[in-house]
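Hey, weird one. I pasted the Inner membrane transport protein YdiM sequence into the form twice and got a warning about non-standard characters only the second time. First submission, copied straight from the form history:
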Amino acid sequence: LGIGRLSVLLFAGLLSDRFGRRPFIMLGMCCYMAFFFGILHTNNIIIAYVFGFLAGMANSFLDAGTYPSLMEAFPRSPGTANILIKAFVSSGQFLLPLIISLLVWAELWFGWSFMIAAGIMFINALFL
């Protein structure tokens, strides 16, 4: 994830300033959906690394669009908007292992957690 994120962060930020935030948010969500579906259907470590790289790119694309958008939406308190994003990211990072553990405990397929995340991304894309 880290290499994918670092490889496009500067590039994505500059292009987001030039072409707008929405295309990069959409691109980030599409990359994440490809990651969520792709990682579940691969049995090759190299392809899994490619999907991990893609997830890092998705993270950069979303950062390039969402951070500036929220700061522009709340010009009097951009720090609060930044904290809000970090809070949602942290909550997702906290909940995902719990959800996977609950699915495994219930003897269900762990991949449902990725499918649900992809579904949420898709619904977000519809309303963007």
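That's the output from the first submission. The warning seems to come from a hidden character in my clipboard, not from the data itself. The mean pLDDT is 90.
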